[in-house]
Write a structure and sequence with these properties.
The structure holds two protein chains of two kinds. Chain A has two domains: about 300 residues, Rossmann fold; about 35 residues, no CATH class. Helices cover about 40% and strands about 10% of the residues of chain A. By secondary structure, chain B is of the alpha/beta class. Chain B has two domains: about 180 residues, Rossmann fold, CATH 3.40.50.970; about 130 residues, Rossmann fold, CATH 3.40.50.920. Chain B contains 15 helices and 14 strands. Chain B has a seven-stranded mixed sheet, with helices on both faces. The chains are: A alpha/beta, B alpha/beta. Chains A and B meet through strand 2, helix 7 and helix 8 of A and helix 6, helix 7, helix 8 and helix 12 of B.
């Protein structure tokens, strides 16, 4: 496994992907301890590998796609698409920045995990989906919810714990749900959302094959590098490939699981390779480049809609902030952070749009201003919203509140007036 | 000897076992009680005969449920059909699958194998491999898959080949099954049924003899029921599938071959109600699942000794039916709980607390709880027998309480 990094392959890739250290020339035995101070070696030669693995699948290396497009002189996106992508990423970034401010002002509490730096992955995938497609995320879910269409007001209110939040204030930062937009959560434990996503994809297949409905909904499951060492991940890769479910597994590999470097915790850090082991294509893509992500996503989503089964996409990305707002973020190397900050996806897209004359600086500024106002308004709305009353305490525990049982007086407990007041003892 | 017991048992049972009639009457008389149970119309004669005869005959076979007992007294019943408990479960499941195409089954060996206890036999042939899904061995993931499917409009019935295996699915059951309706602010419902055989069998060893009801009972947002007869097995299965709440249906490995005549008409059993097995005056015995039969066997002895125990199968392990239980406590003033669960933190422990809290004034003696020993179930037959409550212990406990 370690020896697949053959140094004999030519190195391609643009300057920005050049590493601080030369690629590891791995001679057996591989080092037993990879300290966090070691940069992840991402020889661009690796991008050719998914072409390797992709021999069994139609997913083509991104670089080839990009090169091809450039040769034929057509751009990857239209102006409208570009503006949509830009607006979505700006929304994600502004919203998360506002969250940090609000947290330090004492408007929200608990564990809040921000998505700064990873916007390309969310925007790249979710902007290709329809409303009836499903998204499943982890605790780092604010931006996934926003990209999927949940309003900034609803997400901010939820974070403030107000009644007008998307989950009535009952879920919080780590549980963003929306039935309307098919955002299936928001999960606090890593890995526990992946089976739920597999189930949503199963329903899609069931609707098509058993209920004979016209259903080509796909599910996208987002999770991190740390999750890829968890059993549920592998169990679901197996079932998804076995049943050919319309699901895309998106690994947001930001190299760190709180303070645990991906290299220190994973025997083979190349996660995309684990796809072919289960019989599905595994793709690695630069997660700091929204256009590259989008190209890979298009292919994966089309595959799934056609009934060809799941895809595993590993996005190399980075979170600019700590794991959560409570994380002092002392372990990560400043040089590593600087390297990725230079690859800010929003700056990159801005540059692309302007250079290719798809949008002017003025238009982009207008978008930024619009989003700023939107986020401000969301905060005002959340501030003005009421907190949940006592009566909400016992609601929604059961879909059918008869589940609280029959009290000593013979009536169902939910018929007790104290129940609706929230003061009943259940 | 067994014939004498049969005779005496049948006599007492016939005279006192108007349970279905009694309960049906009492249900309609209660104000404010929603009638969720559709009890079959002709239940009086049918229930009397199948109840008494099959119970007593089961006792004469020392509760070895491997032998299906033929009930000869069924000639008096004119309607209904006779079947084994696992067939009743299958019937309930099949009827619900016919009724609603969103109902599906997932689990290990439920499809082509027909289920390790044959509960899903024939269903894959009838409904196809996707509706009766053979999963790989990944409890956590396929339980989660069922939950995800339930959130997106399906109604899965997830089978744990043995309830003990669901320990591997604890993450999904506790975090997702129980909580997602709440944390999503009521947006998503999770109408799953998680079912499987549990309990202490015949020398199955420690890991296959677990009673998970005690571990799951604290999870908010789920309901737990335990079936004990073919009648309530079918009824509870149907009710669980129709419920919008996640329901865990506990079956028992040793009860699958119990035979009973059940109504031909459609019926469901209320998920939140307890079942009056034998009305009485002197003492309330609360039990569920397999221990119901140990209790009824002890009841025969007790009746011969002049006691009149009231036996209630609580059926609903979470939440407790405090109305039926409370009425009984108010009548008899003495409570004995007999369960197969572990002593520490078991269903009995919770029930004791609930009774003390709610009915303290009506008790003439402390609530006594007979549970299994706090030991991993041994393999050896003798040791295994001593971990579980036996009828003789029940008789002693009643005599002690009724002094």
């Amino acid at each position: 496994m370690a020896t697949s990094f053959s140094a004999t392959l030519p190195l391609h890739g643009s300057q920005e992907n050049r590493l601080l250290l030369p690629p590891i020339r791995l001679a057996p035995p591989p080092p037993s301890f990879l300290g966090s101070t070691r940069s992840l070696t991402v020889p661009s030669s690796r991008r050719l590998y998914h072409a390797h693995a992709a021999r069994r699948s139609p997913v083509v290396g991104v670089q080839e796609v990009v090169k091809e497009k450039k040769v034929t002189n057509s751009l990857l996106i239209t102006k409208e698409e570009g503006l949509v992508l830009y607006e979505d990423m700006i929304l994600g970034r502004s919203f998360e920045d506002m969250c940090a401010q609000m947290y330090y002002r004492g408007k929200m509490f608990g564990f809040v995990h921000l998505y700064n730096g990873q916007e390309a992955v969310s925007t790249g995938f979710i902007k290709l989906l329809t409303q009836s497609d499903s998204v499943v995320s982890t605790y780092r879910d604010h931006v996934h919810a926003l990209s999927k269409g949940v309003s900034a007001r609803a997400v901010m209110s939820e974070l403030f714990g107000k009644v007008t939040g998307c989950c009535r204030g009952q879920g919080g930062s780590m549980h963003m749900f929306s039935k309307e937009h098919n955002m299936l959560g928001g999960f606090a434990f890593i890995g526990e959302g992946i089976p739920v996503a597999t189930g949503a994809a199963f329903t899609s297949k069931y609707k098509r094959e058993v209920l004979k409905q016209d259903c080509d909904d796909v599910t996208v499951a987002f999770f991190g590098d740390g999750t890829c060492n968890n059993g549920q991940f592998y169990e679901c890769l197996n079932m998804a490939a076995l049943y050919k479910l319309p699901i895309i597994f998106v690994v947001e590999n930001n190299l760190w699981a709180i303070g645990m470097s991906h290299l220190r915790s994973t025997s083979d850090p190349e996660i995309w390779k684990k796809g072919p082991a289960f019989g599905m294509p595994g793709v690695h893509v630069d997660g700091m480049d929204v256009l590259k992500v989008r190209e890979v996503a298009k292919e994966a989503v089309t595959r799934a809609r056609r009934g060809e089964g799941p895809t595993l996409v590993e996005c190399e990305t980075y979170r600019f902030r700590g794991h959560s707002l409570a994380d002092p973020d002392e372990l990560r190397d400043a040089a590593e952070k600087a390297k990725y900050a230079a690859r800010d996806p929003i700056t990159a897209l801005k540059k692309y749009l302007v250079e290719n004359k798809l949008a002017s600086e003025g238009e982009l500024k207008t978008i930024e201003k619009k989003i700023d106002e939107l986020v401000e308004e969301a905060v005002e709305f959340a501030d003005a919203s009421p907190q949940p009353g006592r009566s909400q305490l016992l609601e929604n525990v059961f879909a059918d509140p008869k589940g609280f049982g029959i009290g000593p007086d013979g009536r169902y407990r939910c018929e007790d007036p104290k129940f609706t007041e929230g003061t009943a003892q259940v | 000897m067994s014939a004498i017991i049969h005779g005496a048992g049948a006599a007492t049972a016939l005279s006192t076992f108007n349970s279905k009639k009694l309960v049906a009457r009492s249900r309609t008389n209660l104000p404010g009680r929603s009638k969720r149970c559709i009890v079959a119309a002709g239940s009086d004669d049918g229930s009397k005969s199948f109840g008494s005869s099959s119970l007593s005959l089961r006792h004469s076979h020392k509760l070895i449920a491997n032998n299906a007992v033929a009930t000869k007294a069924d000639t008096s019943a004119t309607t209904g059909h006779e079947l084994l408990l696992f067939e009743a479960l299958q019937e309930g499941l099949e009827e619900e699958m016919d009724r609603d195409p969103h109902v599906c089954v997932m689990g290990e060996d439920v499809g082509h194998y027909g289920g390790s206890y044959k509960v899903t036999k024939g269903l894959a042939d009838k409904f196809g491999d996707l509706r009766v899904l053979d999963t790989p061995i990944c409890e956590n993931a396929f339980t989660g898959m069922g939950i995800g499917a339930a959130m997106t409009d399906l109604r899965p019935v997830i089978e744990g080949m043995n309830m003990g295996f669901l320990l591997l699915a604890f993450n999904q059951i506790s975090n997702n099954c129980g909580m997602l309706h709440y944390t999503s602010g009521g947006q998503f419902t999770i109408p799953v049924v998680i079912r499987g055989p549990g309990g202490v069998g015949r020398q199955l060893g420690a890991e296959h003899s677990q009673r998970l009801e005690s571990y799951f009972q604290s999870i908010p947002g789920i309901q737990m029921v335990a079936c004990s007869t073919p009648y309530n097995a079918k009824g509870l299965m149907k009710a669980a599938i129709r419920s919008e709440n996640p329901v865990i249906l506990f079956e028992h490995v040793l009860l699958y071959n119990l035979k009973e005549k059940i109504p031909d008409e459609e019926y469901i059993c209320n998920l939140e109600e307890a079942e009056m097995v034998r009305p009485g005056e002197h003492i309330t015995i609360l039990t569920y699942s397999r221990m119901r039969y140990h209790v009824m066997q002890a009841a025969k002895t007790l009746v011969n000794k002049g006691y009149d125990p009231e036996v209630i199968d609580i059926r609903s392990l979470k939440p407790f039916d405090l109305y039926t239980i409370g009425n009984s406590v108010k009548k008899t003033h003495r409570v004995l709980i007999v369960e197969e669960c572990m002593r520490t933190g078991g269903i009995g422990a919770s029930l004791t607390a609930a009774i003390n809290e709610n009915f303290h004034d009506y008790l003439d003696a402390p609530v006594m709880c007979l549970s299994s020993q706090d030991v991993p179930t041994p393999y050896a037959g003798t040791l295994e027998e001593w971990t579980v409550v036996q009828p003789a212990q029940i008789v002693t406990a009643v005599e002690q309480l009724c002094q």
